[in-house]
Amino acid sequence: MKKGALIGCGFFAQNHMHAWADVEGAAITALCDRDENRLKETAGRFGVERTYTDADELLKSEELDFVDIATTVLTHRRLVERAAGSNVHIICQKPFADTMADARAMTDAAADAGVTLMVHENFRWQSAIHAAKAELDKGAIGTPFWGRVSFRSAYDVYSGQPYLATDERFIIQDLGIHILDIARFLFGDARTISASTKRVNPAIWAEDVATMMLVHKSGVTSVVDCSYASRLSRESFPESLLEVDGSEGTLRLMPGYRLVVHNASGTRELDVSPPLLSWAERPWHNIQESVYNIQRHFIDCLNASGAPETSGLDNLKTLELVEAAYLSAAGNSRTIKLDTA
Ligand code: NAD
Ligand code: 89Y
Question: How far apart are CA 39 and CA 52, in angstroms?
């Protein structure tokens, strides 16, 4: 049994706790939050007796295999460095870091300590995205040459996550990061990116619309577009939609989790709806299922001594896309060549 502690008992961490209860071979034995009320509420809800308001105290007092960090971005570097210094494996929520320098410092700290560091980059773990990837991998549409990964909504994310309305950066760093990661998952790493952003909602501080174009090393050109200002006749939050054109056909992941694959043999329409886990609530259930999937993957990796798919090192490439997208948007949508290209 791998023993873990959750640091940060806020809005999203409740999903982590529900998922941990379902992951075989892992148990959360201690909790930490500097807000005593949130700590107490979460401890009561999940029956965890050992609680701390200070992460240093937690790391000093508990015998742990891993920590699951679900605080917000500005606290990540200190917590990751402290956890690595205590020789425990680490999961860290996205966005992993606010700067590439912080991100590299964290991957270095984990490598020096010889601990596993995984970023909780869960969107690629949604079952609908995995089903689409399986079709591409088996060659259902031949060789992909063009793609679109799209997330457009007007869902009120601000009431559950008020910091999204006031942070200096919004949609690329918060949501686009996932959508860019899906583009990497499907089409591989990118050589260049260009972006344009806009703030439509006057009640928030930063951009709520972003349109990005990536040229991937695989030869695919993709469009990654995100909006929290799109009032659609059918609200599909939080579905990521896909369009992929290949040499032998096309693939579409449409609202309502309908996967349509068309090629010379005909058209297949598959229902790739995520399962509704016992603790999940619509419309969040596809994200909630992906939380379970990624946490299970982390424990599988610890048991097999393997690197997680979205390791800290892997996530540097997603973060690089985020940074380059902001740079491009601030520079009249100029094309940015990626360092790792
Ligand atoms: P939140 O503000 O509700 O919760 C964060 C909690 O961390 C708070 O209770 C706070 O008191 C605690 N905290 C902060 N610093 C701490 C420290 N140094 N020690 C102990 N506790 C500390 O935030 P949230 O909405 O739950 O978001 C948390 C993270 O989850 C964010 O990075 C967000 O982007 C991410 N998130 C991810 C997904 C996803 O699908 N992967 C979805 C939503 C949110
Ligand atoms: O914080 C975001 C995330 O990671 O997924 C959706 C979200 O909760 C709001 O954009």
Answer: 8
